[in-house]
Amino acid sequence: MSWLTQQEKKVICIVLGLLVTGLAVKYYRTAHPAAAATSQLLKP
Q1: Burial of 4 by CB count in 10 Å (0-12 exposed, 13-18 middle, 19+ buried)?
Q2: pLDDT tens track for 14-25
């Protein structure tokens, strides 16, 4: 007995996947600051 349609389940999975991806990017960026990478790129 399922109270969600197949399309609703798919939307929930996509939203949860995007949320997890966003959190992973957030924690990656805090662990690897961009200031060090951009300063190396700007040096002649």
Answers
A1: exposed
A2: 999 999 999 999
Taking Cα atoms as reference points, which of 42, 4, 16 lies closest to residue 34? 42
Say what the pLDDT of residue 33 is.
83
Determine the residue type at 14.
Answer: I
Instruction: Please give the mean pLDDT across all residues of the chain.
Output: 86
Name the residue with tokens 């929930």: 12
- One DSSP character per residue, 6-42 reads HHHHHHHHHHHHHHHHHHHHHHHHHHS-HHHHHHHHH
